[in-house]
Amino acid sequence: MAQKEDVFKKIVSHAKEYGFVFPSSEIYDGLGAVYDYGQNGVELKNNIKRYWWEAMTLLHENIVGIDSAIFMHPTIWKASGHVDAFNDPLIDNKDSKKRYRADVLIEDEIAKIEEKIDKEVAKAAKRFGDSFDEAMFRQTNGRVLEHQQKRDVLHSRYEKAMNDNDLKELRQIIEDYAIVDPISGTRNWTDVRQFNLMFKTQMGSSADATMDVYLRPETAQGIFVNFLNVQKTGRMRLPFGIAQIGKAFRNEIVARQFIFRMREFEQMEMQFFVRPGEELDYFKFWKETRLKWHKALGMGDEKYRFHDHEKLAHYANAATDIEFQMPFGFKEVEGIHSRTNFDLSQHEKFSGKKIQYFDPELNESYTPYVIETSIGVDRMFLSVLCSSYEEQQLDGGDTRVVLHLPKALAPVKCAILPLVKKDGMPEKAREIMDMLKFDFACQYEEKDTVGKRYRRQDAIGTPFCITIDGQTLQDNTVTLRDRDTMQQERVAISELPRIIGEECSLNNLLKKLV
N or C: which end of the chain has fewer CB within 10 A? Predict the structure, then answer.
């Protein structure tokens, strides 16, 4: 675990050093859990968003996009339940004066027990080798069974307390399992209490004419309140979806793990409207479709898993998360939820406007059911960064840090490098740059040795380096170097658009999804 934490620290440091992510307001000592995306980060982030947007809107004829406002009428958040129920259970440690989410403290304790089980299994696997039967070992080993029982009892109590919203029981669990403050190491806890996560501000020009408004904590409600606008103007017929990418804001108390949990973040959400009774079939369809989208990036199928919700929101009849294996464990990057007709019904009730769909096949009006797919852009960005980072030992004792980014997502697709700054090589390199820059994000670089330039491009994940040398001026060929294999081959300049296009094309990535 410590080794993985060290790797994660290196990834965070690398992200800053190479222009991916900066602490926000850093010259003023920063702002907690708020980050800025640098010159390479914004390109990677935009490529992730483009991959999602085009997978939704180009590949599905019945999905369209919108961009709703961040400020919305405050009654929307009353209707959605956020004003009354968008809370986290918080607990303070009196010695460290730090505040924690009680549920996170307990989940971390569950994870520690699971880690002990995994260690026992790993030790046995090493001892028995190929003859090891993991399933049998988990069912029969005394220490594993003891840990498993402890984990199941804790999990059962925790699940019930969360479902019942029993704050006293959450505190009692923390007491019973001797959960300590990670900073002070003490168990001097306060009671658990609820804290609303929405940011509130005022809208209006004078003090006596202001209205309380909220920064939206999710983007979904902007889709629901525009359901009729989109359906009527687009003459949409069920089933159909509305997609949106946008900022959301949550006053997270336990914001942590770099950009994994932030106070200002970005979501890619799609709400898919269906006939009542068909929602579970579409829930299954979107589970499979969304997992395929993730796996197409080639970051390792084994790094993904579904985590079905045991605690369902009162309005949901199915929910699952797609989790990705981060350096700090399997964590949610996307949620898929069957939200029934709760949202549209609530907005109909609170607005007084009829929000229904007339079904010409059934010749009746009804409130559609909704399947939601919701993915955090920043979490997706972090999963790509973590899975791509490698410190590689090379022949001869040399090392390099390389980002094996999915090539279609890489911020720079090719670097154009004249071997020396003379003999017509820079001019030829500029010609190649001018040829490629309309189709690919290119970077021209002539400073330092070509070896150092290769290392810099490896560190930002550039798939190809194109080196222009003396031979280029004679026969119009260049050295094309591959980031992952470091192999170099001589290719004609005229072949570069085809080679780079085949490897880095977003279209080729999208074709894997059809």
Answer: C
What is the CATH code for 87-195? 3.30.40.230
210 vs 202 pLDDT, higher one: 202
Task: Give the tens place of pLDDT for each residue, 423-482.
Answer: 888 999 999 999 999 999 999 998 989 989 999 999 999 999 999 998 899 999 999 999
Q: What does the alpha-carbon distance between residue 34 and residue 42 come to, in Å, rounded to a whole number?
A: 15
| Kind of pairing between the strands at 99-101 and 87-92 | antiparallel
Cα separation of 297 and 405, whole Å? 9
Give yes or no on whether 87-195 and 407-511 have one common fold. Answer: no
Spatial distance between the Cα atoms of 289 and 300, rounded to a whole number of angstroms:
17
Q: How confident is the model at residue 260 (pLDDT cuts 50, 70, 90)?
A: confident
pLDDT-derived band at 209, boundaries 50, 70, 90: low
The C-alpha atoms of residue 365 and residue 474 are separated, in whole angstroms, by 73
- With pLDDT > 70 as the criterion, what percentage of the chain qualifies? 97
Q: 168: which strand partners?
A: none
3-state class (DSSP) for residue 178? coil
Q: Tell me which H or E stretch contains 77.
A: helix 75-80
How far apart (Å, rounded) are the C-alpha atoms in residues 247 and 226?
17
pLDDT at 293: 96
Rg (CA), the chain: 26
- Reported in sequence order, the residue ranges of 442-512 that DSSP labels E, i.e. its strands, are 442-444, 464-468, 477-482, 488-492
Q: Taking Cα atoms as reference points, which of 375, 314, 373 lies closest to residue 345?
A: 314
The CATH number assigned to the domain with range 407-511 reads: 3.40.50.800
Can you give the pLDDT at residue 3? 62
Q: Is 271:372 a contact under the CB 8 Å cutoff?
A: yes
**Residue 432 near residue 466 (C-beta atoms within 8 A):** yes
Measured distance CA(476)–CA(478) in Å, rounded:
7
Strands 200-203, 329-340: pairing kind: unpaired
309 vs 205: which has the higher pLDDT: 309
Q: Where are the beta strands (DSSP E) in 341-436?
A: 357-359, 364-366, 369-376, 389-393, 399-403, 414-418
Give the pLDDT confidence score for residue 283 in this predicted structure.
95
Burial of 494 (0-12, 13-18, 19+ CB in 10 A): exposed
CA atoms within 13 A on the CB side of 129: 1
